[in-house]
Amino acid sequence: MSHGTAALPCSEACERNKAPILAILQESLRDARSVLEVGSGTGQHAVHFAAAMPWLAWQPSERPGELDAILAWRAYAALPNLHAPITLDVLGEWPDTHVDAVFSANTLHIMGWDGVEAFFAGVGRVLGTEGLLAVYGPFNYEGRFTSESNRQFDRWLKARDPRSGIRDIEAIHALAAQAGLAPQADHAMPSNNRLLLWRKGSVLA
Predict the structure, then answer these.
(1) In this model, does residue 203 exceed pLDDT 50?
(2) Which of 22, 57, 77, 113 is the most exposed place for a label (fewest CB within 10 A)?
(3) Where are the domains of the chain?
(4) Can you identify the CATH homologous superfamily of domain 10-200?
(5) Strand 86-87 to strand 99-105: parallel, antiparallel, or no bridges (unpaired)?
(6) Coil, strand or helix at 106
(7) CA-closest candidate to residue 165, choices 102, 94, 116, 104
(8) Is residue 114's pLDDT more than 60?
(9) Region 175-185: what's the mean pLDDT?
(10) pTM for the full model?
């Protein structure tokens, strides 16, 4: 984080994971032109990725009342391909648009399961044919935590909100299939996280 950004809202997790995520996205999104980011948080990912991939029109979004940090980062970065953030609650109305890709980081374990279901249904509607969905975060495999730190994190999440928690990858893939998305890749990321990629087919499942 540079001296010029010291006064901006900062997520240390974003600072740590933005480089490894970008390394995958630069290849995966080389043919895309428009991206909707669901749950942009502070806006650090949006700025970092838009700066590194100038061929993309990057659309950040957040829940109502949580756009200020993204606006601050966008004003600082002044990138022509980084759009003003829009309000998006996964359980509410999604934008009437079609995009080449959807990206979301550290969201599925924060929202309730109804939100996870709404997320995939919404992605299925806005993602164009052969569009890409990229989701970053921790996941369980065969009902098991991949690390003790993830087990402790899940315990913390549920103490804060019983509806939240690290999701089982098998249930996530089932929701993706319902939205017409076929799994493409499962990348290991730092701190026991994953970057999952799905591709939308021409025919809905």
Answers:
(1) no
(2) 113
(3) 10-200
(4) Vaccinia Virus protein VP39 (3.40.50.150)
(5) unpaired
(6) coil
(7) 116
(8) yes
(9) 97
(10) 0.93
